[in-house]
Design a protein that fits this description.
Blueprint: H1 2-11, H2 13-22, E1 35-37, E2 40-47, E3 50-52, E4 55-70, E5 75-78, E6 90-97, E7 102-105, E8 130-132, E9 136-139, E10 143-147, E11 150-151, E12 155-158, E13 180-183, E14 186-187, E15 191-194, E16 201-204, E17 207-208, E18 212-215, E19 235-237, E20 240-241, E21 245-248, E22 265-266, E23 270-272
């Protein structure tokens, strides 16, 4: 299922760029004062605290911001890059995603091509990275899609999601339904995903220094849109977890689905439903 999303997103990368730069223009120049992005491209540079209220793009140079808050209904799309990975990277201390907010953070050629990669649909090569020197916290967010970076403390996603209907439509996700995903990240604390009701959730190839908690997440209808794939959603594979892996109350039960991933390596205890995704 995830592969279908990625192809659709990558194919519409030009649309994302057009919306980012042309519709609003960049937020005011970087500096020491607090900033608000109401929409459009965030100019490259260093900022103090930033609040995002519209659909904002990190596509005009790398951005460093002390604390980043995505206000209710706001979007940050930071999935633009370059062949050397040195363009359009985001560095921040803490990221907060409020109710209805959307965060798309990081891109990498083999899993989630950058929106601006000219060969996104054939042979993608662009990538970027991100660093959260603290916590990433999302509460009742619509979508949290995170690839190829580092979170030094905890990543916590509580509640929210776009609902289980897997509605395809229009908007900055290029017609894709909302979903949640953590792939190819180094997380220095805990990863917690709980109480999310959405189209699809994936956790792949992450290295987590403490515990992973995956409870009460619902995404049962994803397979119906892309038959004849096996049962999909709540896919957890190929992760290295130094602490415990705890799973309960999920529908469907955590699984490998069509990911092609391998069992997770867990140094601590494996509890509940996640006994299905370890050797």
């Amino acid at each position: 299922m995830k592969r279908q999303f990625v192809r659709m997103l990558a194919g519409a990368g030009g649309a994302a760029l057009a919306l980012g730069g042309a519709a609003f223009g960049p937020v005011h120049a970087a500096g020491s004062s607090d900033s608000t992005c109401v929409g459009g491209s965030i100019a490259g540079g260093s900022y103090n605290n930033m609040t995002v209220t519209g659909v904002c793009f990190v596509d005009s140079g790398s951005v460093s911001v002390k604390n980043l808050e995505i206000a209710p209904g706001g979007w940050v799309i930071a999935a633009f890059g370059s062949a050397d990975g040195k363009a359009d990277n985001l560095t921040t201390k803490n990221v907060t995603v409020d109710s209805g907010g959307v965060l798309v953070l990081g891109c990498v050629s083999f899993a989630f091509p950058c929106f601006n990669d000219p060969n996104a649909n054939t042979n993608p090569t662009y990538f970027n990275t991100f660093t959260v020197n603290g916590n990433l916290t999302a509460t009742n967010a619509s979508a949290v899609i995170v690839h190829n970076g580092a979170i030094t403390q905890n990543a916590i996603v509580s509640g929210g999601g776009g609902g289980t209907a897997c509605n395809f439509g229009s908007g900055p996700l290029m017609g894709n339904p909302f979903y949640d995903d953590f792939e190819d990240n180094a997380i220095g604390g805990n990863l917690t995903i709980q109480g999310v009701s959405t189209c699809w959730i994936g956790v792949f190839r992450d290295t987590v220094a403490r515990n992973v908690t995956f409870n009460n997440n619902t995404d049962p209808n994803a397979t119906a849109f892309f038959p004849p794939f096996p049962p999909d959603g709540n896919e957890i594979a190929t992760n290295t977890i130094d602490g415990n892996l705890n799973c309960s109350g999920n529908d469907p039960t955590p699984q490998f689905g069509d990911s092609g991933g391998s069992p997770n390596t867990v140094l601590g205890r494996v509890n509940g439903q996640c006994t299905a995704v370890v050797p």
